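--- STAGE predict ---
source: upstream dedup step, 1 unique chain passed
mode: sequence only
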Amino acid sequence: MKNKIIFFWFLMISIMMALSSSFWFSLWMSLEINMMMFIPLMNSKNFLSSNSMLFYYIIQSLSSSLYFFSSIIFSIYSNNMMIFIMTISMLIKLGSAPFHMWFPQISEGLNFMSFFVLSSFQKIIPLHVTSLIMNNNNLIPFIILSSIMGSLGGLNQISFKKILAFSSIAHLSWILTLISLKQNFWTIYFLIYSIILMKITFFLNKNNCFSIIQINSMKMTYIFKLFLFSFFMSLGGIPPFLGFFIKLISIFLIFKMLPLILMFLIMSSLINVYFYMRSFFPLMLNTKTLTKTFLINVNNFSLFFFIFNFAGIILIFPMISFI
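--- STAGE serialize ---
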């Protein structure tokens, strides 16, 4: 446990190193440190985690090599092809479609805490690099593919890890769209997405709930299931939850410059909401699970995030006036 804390600390240092620099070599060094510090955190001492560690190392090493060599060539001979290759290397690290198949496969072999780090902290540096090197036209095909694959890929899944992995790919399309428009709002979108995902993974990990089949048989109080349902709805962008308002602001920003892409993004969100609701639909119909002591066993931490899911709107809603 102490070793994992040390590795996580160095992982955070690598992220701060990357965010404080724009030089390609220091960014590459940060990516390498970040990768090597995360691999020990993936270890759960079973075959699936070992397989995920090896697969993750191969994918990340390949993308880092692409970034390293394309950056060297670009520093000598500046051309658009090298910028495109650097962008591709970051999209591979992010798990963007069509380079996305490694992401759900690796996610299945991780525990929920490692999965949360993979879906949040591990994306900060590649997103930062993408915002520095990106070309507007380069990202559009990948945005459309990510929105399609992120929604359709989760339709036939019953594992929560794979559902959240494909959901992460769909949310990535929104973030990449904001980056392509040179909108700094992508940082707020990513932060709120990470907070919502953190609470979902916390609930699922605490109750050892791995699939939608288990959700109705788990020994959770009705209020805990309601909390979990509300966070999934927020992740899908259903009003009046916080996730809806970040998507609403994103729609206002995107509509001004790339209105056609909104068709793919909104349809992707609707499909995501469908397979979120499919997971909890039997739960909502089973009113017998409603206990008389409605708030029993709800700790302050859980209640705070449940309130934040609504009260956070007060913090983000004034941003609409600046759009």
